Amino acid sequence: MILFAAMKLIRIDTINILTMRVAITYGVKVINMVCHTKNIIKYILRSFRSQSKLHIKTLLLKMMKNWNLITGEEEIRILRSYSERSRQLTLIYA
Q1: Residues 32-44: pLDDT tens digits?
Q2: Any idea what DSSP says for residue 48?
Q3: Which alpha helices (DSSP H) does the chain contain, by range?
Q4: How far is the C-alpha of 23 from the C-alpha of 82, rounded, in Å?
Q5: Spatial contact of 37 and 29, defined as CB atoms under 8 Å apart
Q6: Residue 51 near residue 45 (C-beta atoms within 8 A)
Q7: How is residue 49 annotated by DSSP?
Q8: Who contacts 52 (Cβ-Cβ below 8 Å, separation ≥6)?
Q9: pLDDT, tens digit (0-9, with 9 covering 90-100), for 21-77
Q10: Cα separation of 8 and 58, whole Å?
Q11: How far is CA 18 from the centre of its chain?
């Protein structure tokens, strides 16, 4: 009878340990999910602010200005080969 009670006690302790481990594991996953969701929402809200649109517009204008400065055949060839290799890598990893 005492042996049966001891086995029952060990079984309860094992279940409690497993339950605690599962609760901690899933609790951490829920916390991570909440943090990631919060960061995604912050990113989306920041992207819709008018100030960030101004920065993007400034960046695009600088890119257009730099692109117009490229006139040499060698520069165009380098850019073309770079874009072709980038596209191939994108297709491989996609």
Answers
A1: 677 777 777 777 6
A2: T
A3: 2-47, 50-69, 73-93
A4: 50
A5: no
A6: no
A7: S
A8: 46
A9: 666 666 666 676 777 777 777 776 776 665 666 777 787 788 778 777 766 788 778
A10: 71
A11: 31
